[in-house]
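Posting for a labmate who doesn't have an account.
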Amino acid sequence: MFRQLECFIKICEEGSFAKASESLMISQPALSQQIRYIEAEFNTPVFKRAGRGIKLTAAGQILYEKAISVMRLIGESKKETAELSNTQINQLPLSIGISPLDCPNFMPFFLKFHEQHPAITLHFENIENGYRDLLHNHNHIDIVISDCPELNKELYAVHVCKEEQALFVYMDHPWADRTSISVRELKNLESDLFVRDSNIVKLLQAYDFKVIQPLQSKFHSTSAAIILSMVMQQMGVAILPISYLHSSSYSKLKVIQFLDPIPAREVKLIVRKDQFIDAAIQTFMNYFLKATKSLAV
């Protein structure tokens, strides 16, 4: 009925079907059809011929006055709804789950977002288990920015970027003076090897089963911070994202880059599929995915 009333009002304002059809950019037959719908609904004619033009009938005059009121109410409703949406954006804080080791890499984007949307409060949640934290703490976390090596049917994940992973060793490790290494050489490693990324484990398995024997350690953790601490304590070496060296205070650690193939992890923006995406969340997602396009590979 909204479209029919819109056409009806335009005909009244223009004084003819021809001018109204040009203004609405629809054909005259289509416009006439809209008026026939109205007349069928109210069971009365709304226009009558008046020379070369048209004139409202008594019923048409009543409908015109009511239609103007209806359209005004619709316009007010749209305005109030938009204001409510903006108010919701201003009032709702946004909770982002991210590892303390990843946060420095993306902080420039968070700062830029705050400049563009100062009313939205960003609350950072310390997470170490990526998407698992979102599944278990979904009432407190809106978005997770992390790797997601294992697909989960409850989550929606969007690619952000890929990041090189490298071998982290203590400064006095026998390999500390090396700058590069092949994956195959890991089979000669005498230290325990800590790996938190399941995709890296699969890569090692694909090369040589013996390579992952050092994974059979008495110590294990999915926390990158704990793994770095274990390397600092000379309990072993680790394969981790290369940026973690720059975002940590572990100055006594050395990074050895891998030759072909170069292990990498994929960072994603993750939300729950059953989550209500409010205005603040949608605004951040649109901004972040566009802003980080320069990182995507």
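Reply:
Got it, the structure tokens are right above this. The mean pLDDT is 84.
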